[in-house]
Structures are given as C-alpha cells and as structure tokens.
Amino acid sequence: MDGIKYYLNPDVSKLFEGQVWIDAAAQVFFSLGPGFGVLLAFSSYNKFRNNVYIDALVTSSINCLTSFLAGFTVFSILGYMSCISGESIENVASEGPGLVFVVYPQALATMPGSTFWSLAFFLMLITLGLDSSFGGSEAIITALSDEFPLIGRHRKIFTACLFSFYFIFDLIMCTQAGVLFIEFANYFAASWGLLIAVMVEALTVSWIYGLDRFIENVRSMIGFKPGIFWRFCWAYASPLLLLSNIIYGFVVHRPLKPHVLCIPLLGIVQVYKASGATLFKKIIAAAQPVPIDDGAVHLSQVLKSQKEEESVML
C-alpha cells in the first residue's frame, strides 16, 4: 500500500520545474502518437466522413485512463520492492530501462511462481515492442507506398526489407555500449527532436496552410466547425507551450562532461590509427575487442584518471 499511497500523493511542487513539463510532453507524444506520422498513416484508411472529432476525444480519454491505471501496477511493484529492501521508493524507482530490466525482474523473482511471472512479463515486453514497431513502421510504409507505386505493388517485400534493416541496425544495442546508444536516442531524438517536429507541424497547419482553410476542411468532413477553444489551441496555445518547453530545455541543458566528450573523439582517433586499406576495414579493426589483460590495465588507467580529475575539480 505504500507504493499506492506514494502514487496518489504526488509532489505538487514538481509542477514548477520545466523538465517535468518537457518529460510530460514527450510522454504524451509517445502515448498518443502525434509527430510520428503514425496517426496520419492510420487516418488515411478511414472513410472521408469519419467523425475524427469523436475519435480524438475517445482515444485521448482512454489513453489517459489506461496510463492512470497502469500507474497502480508500477507503483505497487515499487512499494513491494521498497518494503522488502528497506529503502525508500525514491531510491527504488529508477528511470528508463532500469525500471523494466532491473526493478521488475527483482520483484518478480521474489514472488511465488516467479518463473511463470517472469516468462509472462518478458513475453509481454516482446509483444509490446513488436506492436510499437508495427505502428511506427506503418507511417513509413504507407507514405512511401502512396508516393512510389512500385513499393505499393511490392509491399510485403518492402516491409521485410524494412524490418531486416531494423534488425541489423539495432544489433548495436546488444553491445556493451548499447545502453549509451539507447540513452542518446531517447534524449536527442525522442525528446528534443519530437518537440521541435510537433511545433513545426502545428505552425505549418495553423499559419502556413491557414487555420481557416484547415477548419473548413474539417467542416466538410464531420459536418460542423470546431469551436473557438480548438482554434485557440491550434493557433496559439500549442505552439507557445511547445516553444516555451524547447527554450527552457536549451537554457537548462547541461553539455557533455569533458571525459564523456572524449569518447567519440577517441573513437575517431582509434579508427584513424587502425590498420586497413579502406575506411570499412579500419572500422572493423578498431571494433575488435581488447584482450582481457590489456583491457583491465586500460580500464584501471581510465578510472584512475577520472578520480584524479574529480579530485582536482573538488
């Protein structure tokens, strides 16, 4: 019950932190799908007279209710872990992949029938990942199929090639540095890029295409014009809120630390120094694993230099 109480008694002071609003906006985009092109792809299969007004209200309401109910599951697990570990929920809760791949498995391992629940949990993750891939890929497949009839005639082959590309490209996530690539993608693509893309989309529809023209298009589809509230949100509220989030994010943005910045620079140096007649062969040679003894010595040197750097900064 401690986790449920913690969930139902939020810290209201956090609402005055800009980062909370940035994370909330990104979460809304992930849940509802604006900015990804998925909704445009799905809506292209609707009938012209389909009532998108009702669809938008029902979908948003169900999404909010589902997220609220899912919170009970998440925080009940966190409360359970807090109880058996003796730590506070703030210390147990972790952001990002740690919650799914560390906290949840630890909680499931202590439950009766842990093998079954762990199997069901990770099977659920696989199905959710596949479902998300299907939805996101539909935007790419539909757009290219409509633009290039050749792709539309060979849709199955193109889909197989697209998912094969996903598989090959995502193999980098399975390396020891995979977590870093996930964090980079989550921070730069899923946060900053998404906010900017949605703001540009809102400005394009409201101010370049024209709000009056857009409202007339909606009226011809559903039979009535949206009210003043929706016009204000499309033209002013949404772009201004998104712009304020973006500006605040740039203001409080913390650049990479010097020892983190050296990682890509050192990678370029290693590729340059590697043996090979072509760039591809140099990359392959530089990507070879370091022997255990050499790697241990190198790691100890890196840790020693980091400690010396931190002591100098202090």
Describe the structure.
The protein has 314 residues and is mainly alpha-helical. The chain folds into three domains: 1-110, no CATH class; 178-254, no CATH class; 259-313, no CATH class. The protein is 79% helix and 0% strand. It has helices spanning 2-8, 18-32, 38-43, 52-85, 89-92, 97-109, 114-147, 149-153, 155-169, 178-222, 228-251, 258-273, 279-286, 292-313. Helix 4 crosses helix 6 and helix 10 (178-222) packs antiparallel against helix 11 (228-251). One of its GO terms (molecular function) is metal ion binding.
Structure in a nutshell:
79% of the residues lie in helices and 0% in strands. The chain has 314 residues and is an all-alpha fold.
Instruction: Quickly count the helices.
Output: 14
Q: Helix/strand-derived class?
A: mainly alpha
Mean of all residue-level pLDDT scores: 78
What is the string of helix and strand elements?
A: HHHHHHHHHHHHHH
Task: Name the beta content range.
Answer: under 5%
Secondary-structure map:
Layout: H1 2-8, H2 18-32, H3 38-43, H4 52-85, H5 89-92, H6 97-109, H7 114-147, H8 149-153, H9 155-169, H10 178-222, H11 228-251, H12 258-273, H13 279-286, H14 292-313
Helix pairs in contact: 1-4, 2-10, 2-11, 4-6, 10-11, 12-13
